[in-house]
């Protein structure tokens, strides 16, 4: 048996053939197993003599099988390694890419433009105290302007009176920054604001950017120059024309609303030119004014020494205008197809 097994195992040419041989010799019905079974019926003397031989045969077949198996597996692996090469010219499978949201991008653009003008970025909490959001901005408790803000209130009492609320504008950051840093100041404050309002041009959460300059001898001319410079840089056009209209905000005096001229091109608003030119119209883009001396006072500064201007505008509106988007709600749906459509996806 041993000689026959040696040859057959050496000649086996596949793992399957080896397995067949294993069953044939060592399986339950195998020939070596059958020999092993005869040991039980032998006399002690016979067993003494044949036992070691049969055990040796079993060991031999078993060793020969595993040796051959290991050789064959090694050969198979070599063959596979020789055959499998990396094709570096294959195109990479497409993988989805993330990109910066238009609102974030516009906030970055604004921060960069204002950084060039010497403004730093200030922040304040979105869950705000009634006092910072209204009272310190010259809107005491029964002020009618409060009603225009559609405020989300929390049931919690605010430390400085009234209730806690979701800030309705970024203007409370004016007060917080003056109180924390004093004067002079040149800051912008971009961030989320909230009002209970929703349609194609209003969402309950939207983004504003506030600007504040506090210094000595600041006047309306500084405000006008700053806004003109910023809007030209933002829309990347030299022909931006501003119209300043007298307006009213409790926290600025005088207050000025700012319009830009635009025309319609292929159903899209394109900013540029005077709103009075043929085919053009005016569109309001921001609110501003000289900081009301009462606000400067409530923020802990002397209004006889320090003056300033402030402005506030909607970041989402600016993004819509710059990139020709038309439904504000789509900004916050999180549908990447929308972003991709306007070139905001990888
Ligand atoms: N906070 C005002 C608003 O939300 C905008 C504004 C800011 C107006 C600063 C004047 C000065 O409408």
UniProtKB/TrEMBL annotation:
Its main location: cytoplasm. GO terms for biological process: phenylalanyl-tRNA aminoacylation. It catalyses: tRNA(Phe) + L-phenylalanine + ATP = L-phenylalanyl-tRNA(Phe) + AMP + diphosphate + H(+). Keywords: Aminoacyl-tRNA synthetase, ATP-binding, Cytoplasm, Ligase, Magnesium, Metal-binding, Nucleotide-binding, Protein biosynthesis. The keyword Nucleotide-binding applies. It is an enzyme of class 6 (ligase). Mg(2+) binds at residue 253. InterPro entries: aa-tRNA-synth_II, aa-tRNA-synth_II/BPL/LPL, Phe-tRNA-synth_IIc_asu, Phe-tRNA_ligase_II_N, Phe_tRNA_ligase_alpha1_bac, Phenylalanyl-tRNA_Synthase, tRNA-bd_arm. It is found in: Cytoplasm. Residues 104-321 form the Aminoacyl-transfer RNA synthetases class-II family profile domain. It holds the Pfam family tRNA-synt_2d. Its cofactor is Mg(2+). Belongs to the class-II aminoacyl-tRNA synthetase family. Phe-tRNA synthetase alpha subunit type 1 subfamily. HAMAP family: Phe_tRNA_synth_alpha1. This is Phenylalanine--tRNA ligase alpha subunit. The lineage of its organism: Bacteria, Pseudomonadati, Pseudomonadota, Alphaproteobacteria, Sphingomonadales. The gene is pheS.
């Amino acid at each position: 048996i041993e000689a026959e097994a040696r040859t057959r195992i050496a000649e086996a040419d596949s793992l399957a053939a080896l397995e067949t041989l294993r069953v044939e010799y060592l399986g339950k019905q195998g020939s070596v197993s059958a020999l092993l079974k005869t040991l039980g019926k032998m006399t002690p003397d016979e067993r003494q003599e044949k036992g070691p031989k049969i055990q040796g045969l079993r060991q031999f077949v078993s060793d020969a099988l595993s040796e051959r198996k290991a050789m064959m597996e090694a050969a198979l692996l070599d063959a596979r390694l020789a055959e499998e090469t990396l094709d570096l010219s294959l195109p990479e499978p497409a993988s989805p890419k993330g990109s910066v949201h238009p609102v974030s991008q516009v906030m970055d653009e604004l921060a960069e433009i204002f950084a060039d003008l010497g403004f730093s970025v200030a922040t304040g909490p979105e869950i705000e105290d009634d006092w910072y959001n209204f009272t310190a901005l010259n809107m005491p408790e029964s002020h009618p302007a409060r009603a225009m803000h559609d405020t989300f209130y929390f049931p919690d009492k605010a430390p400085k009176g009234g209730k806690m609320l979701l800030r309705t504008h970024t203007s409370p950051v004016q007060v917080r920054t003056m109180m924390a840093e004093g004067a002079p100041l040149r800051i912008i404050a971009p961030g989320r604001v909230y009002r209970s309002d929703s349609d194609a041009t209003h969402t309950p959460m939207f983004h504003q950017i506030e600007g504040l300059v506090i210094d000595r001898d600041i006047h309306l001319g500084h405000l006008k120059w700053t806004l003109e410079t910023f809007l030209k840089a933002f829309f990347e056009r030299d022909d931006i024309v501003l119209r300043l209209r007298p307006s009213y905000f409790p926290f600025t005096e005088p207050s000025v609303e700012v319009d830009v001229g635009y025309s319609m091109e292929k159903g899209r608003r394109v900013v540029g030119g005077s709103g009075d030119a043929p085919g053009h119209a005016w569109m309001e883009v921001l609110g501003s004014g000289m900081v009301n001396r009462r606000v400067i006072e409530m923020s802990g500064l002397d209004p006889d020494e320090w003056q300033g201007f402030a402005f506030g505008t909607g970041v989402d509106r600016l993004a819509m205008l710059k990139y020709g988007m038309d439904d504000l709600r789509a900004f916050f749906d999180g549908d990447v197809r929308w972003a991709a459509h306007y070139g905001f996806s990888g």
